[in-house]
Amino acid sequence: MTMAMLAGATVGLGLYLLVRALFPARPGLAASLAAFDRARAQDTAERQRRVSPGMEEISGLRARVGRALVRFYESRGWEQRSVRADLALLERSYEGFLATKFLLPAAALIFMPVLVGYAALVGLGDSLAVPAWMALIMAGFFFFLPDLQLRQEAAQRRRDFRHVVGAFLDLVAMNLAGGRGVPEALMTAAQVGDGWAMVRIREALANARIVGQTPWQALGRLGEEVNVAELRDLAAALTLVADDGAKIRQSLAARAASMRSRELSELEGKAGERSQSMLIAQLLFCFGFLVFLGFPALIRILVT
């Protein structure tokens, strides 16, 4: 019965894919708008790749599969903004991410004959049900594994980026107090430090000068690209009070202090969580030691 269901599902999936390949769906409004935005932003993306040597480069089968999957997602209107923001923060390509999500489960399914041979070797019989379910479980795990890794790495790097933004705000406020204008203060503050986050801010400001944008517009676009709310708030504040240097200094100083207090609160919360984890580990260790001490006496009582 199980094999019949698996065979029917396989045949049905094959027929569905054949019909979709012969009669592809017409691109909707969302897909058309996405294609228009992609064409408009192509020149900017090329400039960013030239000035960002750390951007991931893919080629070969992975590149072809990734481009095909990107076209498929865009034809369905699937934007995945959070995923794109995490990838932009980590300087990885969207095509490479989608190709990884497809190729890892495909590799798990390709190794199904190996699972069949292993099942026969350990004495599970000649049935294909157990290896098939094992292959499907492995494929599902490998499909969601890139998302989990991406979220963890992006969360850590976004925290580092927020820390750098707080220091950047202090530097901008110091330059404004020294008599510089807002654009000069932003660019001078971005020249301090060679960390990856400060380099991204410096590149955004330099590209804004090339394309004729204001520095706060560049910071707002960078905040949208990497999904950092502090940069978006900074761009909005600079847009509103660009003509009043005193209020800008006060606002930047207040924002930097607020970010530092928030980071301190997060660190204290993490320290408390780790202290609780250590307490639980110590209690478990003590319980195991008591079991170790009492086990011989308990066995002797039960035996006698």
Notes on the structure:
InterPro entries: T2SS_GspF_dom. Its main location: membrane. Keywords: Cell membrane, Membrane, Transmembrane, Transmembrane helix. Residues 168-294 form the Type II secretion system protein GspF domain. The chain crosses the membrane at residues 6-23, 102-124, 130-150, 279-303. The protein is built from 13 helices and no strands. The chain has helices at residues 2-22, 29-40, 42-51, 61-76, 81-90, 94-110, 112-121, 129-177, 182-190, 196-211, 215-226, 229-240, 245-303. The model is unreliable at 47-54 (pLDDT under 50). By secondary structure, the protein is mainly α. The protein has a domain at 157-256. The radius of gyration is 28 Å and the shape is flat.
Helix content: over 70%
Query: What proportion strand?
Result: under 5%
Order of helices and strands, N to C? HHHHHHHHHHHHH
Report the oligomer: single chain
N-to-C terminal Cα separation, in Å?
Answer: 53 Å
What Rg is obtained from the alpha carbons, in whole angstroms?
A: 28 Å
Largest sheet: none
Helix/strand structural class: mainly alpha
Total strands: 0
Q: So how many helices? A: 13
- Report mean pLDDT, rounded to a whole number: 77
Shape, principal axes of CA atoms: flat
Low-confidence stretches: 47-54
Domain Type II secretion system protein GspF: 168-294
Protein name: Type II secretion system protein
Membrane topology: Multi-pass membrane protein
Transmembrane segments: 6-23, 102-124, 130-150, 279-303
